Amino acid sequence: MPKLPVVSGRQARQAFERAGWHFVRVGSSRHLILRKAGSPAALSIPDHNTLDRGLLRSLIRDAGISVKEFVDLL
C-alpha cells in the first residue's frame, strides 16, 4: 500500500475533482464541500494547510477510490 502524502485541503480538493467530484460550496468552518453525480454522500474537506492522514484516508474511502489512485491524481 502506498504511503499517504502530506497534502493541504486545496490539494486534496484538486485530486478529488480529477476523480470526478465537483466543488459545490464552502461550508461552515471553511470546509470545502464536493459532490459527485450518483453518489448519495458529499465530501467535506477542511481548508487546512495539512490534513491529518487518518482524515485523508477516510475521505479517500468515502470517495470510493484507492490510496494509489489518489496519489496518482495528485
Summarize the structure.
With 74 residues, this protein is of the alpha+beta class. The protein has helices at 9-18, 53-63, 67-73, and strands spanning 22-26, 31-35, 42-46.
- Number of spatially distinct domains: 1
Number of helices: 3
- Uncertain runs with pLDDT below 50, 5 residues or more? none
Report strand order across the widest sheet: 1-2-3
Distance between the termini: 16 Å
Q: Provide the CATH superfamily.
A: Hypothetical protein
Summarize model confidence as the mean pLDDT.
91
Total E-strand runs: 3
Secondary-structure element sequence? HEEEHH
| CATH top level class name | Alpha Beta
Tell the overall outline.
globular
Question: What is the alpha-carbon Rg in Å?
Answer: 11 Å
Main beta-sheet annotation? 3 strands, antiparallel
CATH architectural label: 2-Layer Sandwich
Decide which structural class fits the backbone. Answer: alpha+beta
Strand-residue proportion = 15-25%
Helix content: 25-40%
CATH topology: Metal Transport, Frataxin, Chain A
Supply database-style keywords.
74 residues; 20% strand; single chain; Metal Transport, Frataxin, Chain A; alpha+beta
Commentary on this structure:
The chain has 74 residues and is α+β, with helices and mostly antiparallel strands. It has one domain: Hypothetical protein (Metal Transport, Frataxin, Chain A), CATH 3.30.920.30. Helices cover 38% and strands 20% of the residues. The chain contains three helices and three strands, in the order αβββαα. Strands 1-2-3 form a three-stranded antiparallel sheet. β1 and β2 form a beta hairpin. The longest helix is centred in the C-terminal third of the chain and has 11 residues. The model has no long low-confidence stretch (mean pLDDT 91).
